[in-house]
Structure formats: structure tokens, C-alpha cells
Amino acid sequence: MLDTVCRYLRYLAERGEKEMLITELGSGTGGLTLQVARALPDASIVAVDCDADMVEVARNRLGPFSKQVRYITDTFDRALGSGSDAVIASLALHHILVRSTKTDLYKQIFSSLAHNGVFINADAAVDQDGSLSGFAYDAWIDHMVANGISRDHAVDHLRAWQMEDRYFSLAEELEMLKEAGLKQVDILWRRGPIAVIAAMKLP
To answer: Structure pTM?
Structure first.
């Protein structure tokens, strides 16, 4: 998932005429930030997270990239500036529970992007009412089990997450992005319940 985000950013950077300014929403402990910094050494990255402890972990983790990465401890709506060539997020925006609130954030992202800028969201996208939702969740459980989590604990994790997260379907995500004004919305990668979606701000 993270590799797809980085490869697409590198693809865009190779076709651009300037160093990229990338804003990451929900940067957490810096997993994606680190991969982006390595993949695009000429890019400037603004890492945004509201959790000061996570920001400190990320700052320590990305010590060698201190000149490349700037950190903001704040909410997404207050931290979004203007002129970003890319806004990215990884497993962060599913914490927004209300569709209208998420659409409003997508509108803010649209406003913050430079012309021809891109928004890339790597996150869970599951149609709760669809016939394939059970298949998607089974794949998610199998992935956790393959990485050392017992099946019972994996099921407990999903139940707990659903109390504080909301996974919109891919169709709903694409609709929200288009409603926000973003265009050329497409799916770059998909595995089980996780998808990487990209959308452009075109003049």
C-alpha cells in the first residue's frame, strides 16, 4: 500500500518541473513519511498529526531527514495550508465518522492543492451492505493472523475499531471526492478492504 503511494508520487515528480511540496495528514509515527522521504529526496514534506506523542516518535524516527520534513501538531482543517503539490493520507481518514464532514475535508484538500495537484488516500473502503463485505473482513483477519495476531484477537480488533472508525464504500469515496471538485478519480491499488485512491485538482 505504502509503496504504491510512493511510486505514484515519484511518477508525478519525474514529470514535474519543480521539487514537490507534500502534505501528509495523520502522519502518526512516520511510516509513510519515512518511505516518501526516501523515495523523493528533493521533496519537502509537511507531516500533520494531532497527537503530540506520535509526532515526537516520528521526529525521532526521521532524524536523518530533519531538513526535509516539517511537523505540525494540529487538526487537519487548521493545518492545511495552500500550494501543496500532493496531499496524502494513510489509514487516517477512517476516523471521520460523518460523510458531510469528510466531504468538507476533501473540499479543504481541494482548496489547499496547487493546480494539477493530487490527493492520495490509502485507507479501508468497505461497502457495509454489500455482499463482498464479509470477504473483505475475512481477508483483513487473515492478514493479521499471518502477521502474528491470533484469530480471536484479530476479530476483537475489528469489533473495537468499528466503534470508533467508519469505512465508506469505494463508490461513496469516489462520489465524495468528485463532489469536492477533484477529477480523474481512480483506484491505484486494492487488496481486501484496503485501497489507494488518487484524485487530481485540474485547472
So the answer is: 0.93
Per residue in 16-44, pLDDT tens? 867 899 999 999 999 999 999 999 999 99
Contact 110, 180 (CB under 8 A): yes
What does the radius of gyration of the chain's CA atoms come to, in whole angstroms?
A: 17
Q: Is 136 exposed, middle or buried (0-12, 13-18, 19+ CB in 10 A)?
A: buried
Show the DSSP H helices in the chain as ranges.
2-15, 31-39, 52-61, 76-79, 99-112, 133-146, 151-164, 170-179
Q: Which domains does the chain have, with CATH numbers?
A: 2-125+167-201 (3.40.50.150), 126-165 (no CATH)
Separation CA 46–CA 64 (nearest Å): 15
